[in-house]
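REVIEWER CHECKLIST
Item 1: Sequence provided? yes
Item 2: Single chain? yes
Item 3: Sequence as submitted:
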Amino acid sequence: MPLGLTLIEAQKDARRAEQLAVLKTFAEGELLRRLPIRNLVGGSLSFPAETKLPRFGFRSVNEGYRQSYGVINCGSESGHLFGGDMDVDRGSCC
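Item 4: Structure as written out by the authors:
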């Protein structure tokens, strides 16, 4: 199936029963509506990644808490474009 089709359009071209069942499940189900889909500006996404959690513990009566800090680093993921058009020259051969 070509890229850029909606699920409803893809159902029209489904030839096998398995393809039709999968497309119907995605089109009628709640899965795609619940996924957080974002538009990426610049082709990458930056996010905070917690690499070390703060320590936890218990305290006795009339004691203070121990101080502890977590470590948060900045992570990033880049998006890649898969697909596209390819022109093939079908001219005469030698």
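Item 5: Key structural point noted by reviewer: The chain has three helices and two strands.
Item 6: Recommendation: ____
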